[in-house]
Structure formats: C-alpha cells, structure tokens
# Entry
Amino acid sequence: MSQPDSLHGTLIQRGDARYEQARLDAVWNARKPDRYPDAILLAGSDDDVVAGVHWARENGLRVSVRSGGHSWVGNGVRDGGLLIDLSRLRDVKVDPAARRVRVRPAVPGPEIDRVVAEHGLYFPTGHAPTVGIGGFILGGGYGWNSRTFGPACLSIRAIDVVLPNGEFVHATDENHPDLLWAARGCGPGFFGVVTRLELEVYPRHQRILRTTQTYPMELHDEVIAFICELLPATPAAVEMSAKAGYTPSLGQQAVSITSTAFCTDETGYDLLAPLEKAPFRAHAIRASVNQETSMTELYELADALTLPGMRWALDGIWCDAPASEILTAAAPLVRTMPEDNSFIFWMMWGHYPERDNACWSVQAPVYLSPNAGWTDPAEDLAHERWVHQSLADMQQLSRGLQFSDNNVADRPDIGLSPANASRVEAIRAVYDPEGLMRTYMTPEESTTALARAAARR
Ligand SMILES: Cc1cc2nc3c(=O)[nH]c(=O)nc-3n(C[C@H](O)[C@H](O)[C@H](O)COP(=O)(O)OP(=O)(O)OC[C@H]3O[C@@H](n4cnc5c(N)ncnc54)[C@H](O)[C@@H]3O)c2cc1C
# Structure
C-alpha cells in the first residue's frame, strides 16, 4: 500500500525495518500483545490523522488508536488494520480566564499539572506520571483528588475529533451532545480519534498532607474493614487507599494505608486525624503522620508502585457489599497473592454524582484491584489467573469494572450501565455505521496466556 502525499506523519507498514520497534513502543507494559497491525501511523498533526483515516478507509483497514500507550493489555495494538499512534501529540495550553486547559492526547499528567499550577489551577490527572490523558480520560479517569472533582471525564468541555468518515470536528455539548456524552466514559469503545481535549480546571488546593501507616499482613482484614468504616464520614478532599503486598524495604508482606488530603481553607487542615484513632494503631510497623507533600512527590510515589520494564496484569471490581462480605470473598485472592511485585490495591471511592451528559455510570464505594507484576514470561499464566480468575470467582460482588484496569476480554464484566452501554452502541451506529473503529476487545482477540489456555479447553 503506497503512502499518499497528504500523509506527512511516518507511516510504517509491516515488513518495514522500523515496524517491530514501533509496535513494541506502542505499549508501556513489558507484557506485549502478540497482535500485529498492518500499519502504524506516527501522526504529527490533525491533518495526519484525517489523512490516516481516509487512507485506512481506502485500503479497507480498521482503525485503532494509541495516545500514552498505558493500556495494560495494549488495546491499540490489534491484529491487522491501521494503528494511529498519537504519541507525538503532546502540547498543553491553559486559558486561565476561561478556566480551561487544552491538551493533546499523549500529554502525561505532570505536564498538565505544571502548566495549570502556574495559574493556581488544578486538574485531577492520573496517579502515575506517565499515563497519557487520552485513554485515561475516555475511560473515566480516576486521578489525584478525583473524589472532589469527579472522574476526569466529567470535566471534558469539548474535543477535537476525527470521525470515522474522515471529517474533523470540534465537538461540544451544543453541536455534538451524543459524541461528548460517549466520550465521557466509554473508554476503549470510543468511535473517533480524539486529537485535542478542552478541559475545565479548578481552583488549586493550598496544601497537600499525607499520612501513611504500615501494618503486618496478619492485620489485613482489620485494616481494610476500618477504612471501609471510615469512608462514609471521610470528606471528598481525602483520598484513602490501601496496598497489600510484598514491601521490599521491610522484606515482608505488609498492608499500608495511605491517605492524602487536598486542603483548602474551606476543607480545613485536620482531615487525616481520624486515621490516628485506628484500634490497631499501636501495631504499626512504621507511620508518617500528616506530612506535607507535593504533586511531584505524589507522582513519584505512584510511579514506584508499578515499575516500568515489568510484566503487569490488572483487573478490578467495584463493590458495595459490607466490608465483612467483601473480605470473606477476597480471602483466596489475599491468600494466594504472589510474593513478588504483585499487590492488592483497595481504593476508597465513596460515590460521585452521575451526570446526564456522561455515559460514565459504574461506581461503588470500594474498588478492589489485584495488580500482578513479574518478569519471567513463563509465569504469565499463574499471574493472570491470580488477577482475573480470582476476581471472576467473586463475581457475585462485582458492580462493574473500570475501563482503565480491565479490557473485558480477560474477565467479562460491565463498564457502563446496561442502558448506557446500549446507547453507546446506538450512537456508534450513527457515527461509525461501517465499523471502521476498533471497539472493546473480545476474548478471541486477547493474547494473554489465560485467554490462550481458555481457548485450548
Ligand atoms: C502505570 C499506570 C498507572 C495508571 N494509573 C491510573 C490512574 O491513576 N487512574 C486511572 O484512571 N487509570 C490509571 N491507569 C490506567 C490508564 O488510565 C488506562 O490504561 C488508559 O487507557 C491509559 O491511557 P493512554 O492514553 O496512556 O493509553 P493508550 O494505550 O494509548 O490508549 C488506550 C485506549 O484508549 C483509547 N484511546 C486512547 N486515546 C485515544 C484517543 N485520542 N482517541 C480515541 N481513543 C483513544 C483507545 O481505545 C486506546 O487503545 C494507569 C495505567 C498504568 C499503566
């Protein structure tokens, strides 16, 4: 297939010496998918994306997208078709008077934070510093201080998008309400290529305080039950989570509560005090109480959790059952946790009001997410089983998944309410009647060891 003159980006077709590197580079995870697009377009502009979509149509290719490349399963890398790689689109422009920031899809969170912070403004970017805003925000976007400002997708005010027919559109709630509704939460099911996002930004916190308490693993259930109990009275400005897993600095498994308070004069500065009243507080192996911190430090701490260069598998479920019930069901997951970089992440979310202008619709007070991290490909199946099968075994407690962590191929579950999922498909039928854009991955497309083992049965 020849490259048209209108295409100024780098088009790398299968067989080209640069192909394999471009394919591998499209996925941050060291566990790369065994899927091979026919071509990869490294787009450098909106025009490139338009030309790429036309080229794909003319050559009968379906289109997939990559922004920051942080999909755990490499969702953009599909068999056949054209992968439009937006990793070169990374600029950020803030309009402080309008309280808006305009970002390209591959921009990572700290870059947005740096630009808006200069104007005393804030946006709830993802926890890890390398995640691209594109996939993060379309999938909901649970970022720093999202309990206050909502999942990041609710802050989308406009998008520049190349539609499946090749048209470039500046879409707003006025001219394309259906498109904006779908962009706010439909994740990898979105049916256009977003080249720019216009986001609402908010007044910035005055100070960030942080408490961390680490306990022996034997106290796991007590610790989780305690923070579940604290959650209803915990102000939205406090982000509370727990990590259970091997802790290298201690040389043992441990459970750590981390609570981060985004303080303003309105919220007050004593938000973390209730944690100190934990009945098991005297058993802490170590603790750091109400320490002032910064966004830079928060990004660094998140970065250290899921190290680059390792093989990672993730999944997660929202739960609204009583803590005792969740912990009973999660006992096998906790008991069989691999003693390596793997861990269980508990996020205390609570609830954020849903909006009529967003398809984002699945949440529950507690989010439970096994994160498996390992290095030897021979251990893929064991780790993927621990992540996906253990959660499938407690499916009766799931109120749904986050698109950020699961791709529905390795453990089917709902990422949208059934009514909203149907409406997304109805809107897709209007914008993409020929099915040009790839949508949610199917078990048949998954190349995980788990999917292969299931296919052999
Ligand atoms: C280390 C790490 C930390 C993470 N931390 C968080 C976190 O704190 N909070 C959270 O919510 N999630 C988090 N995630 C999950 C992350 O948000 C999702 O994996 C998200 O999809 C990554 O976005 P991306 O643009 O980097 O991914 P990509 O792999 O580039 O994109 C994933 C998919 O999203 C869609 N997509 C992306 N960009 C576009 C676009 N411009 N137009 C149309 N469709 C698009 C496509 O279907 C694409 O295949 C984390 C992931 C990792 C690896």
About this structure: The pocket of flavin-adenine dinucleotide is lined by residues 28, 64-72, 75-76, 86, 105, 126-128, 131-132, 134-136, 138-143, 188, 190, 193-194, 306, 404 (CB under 6 Å). The chain has a mean pLDDT of 96.
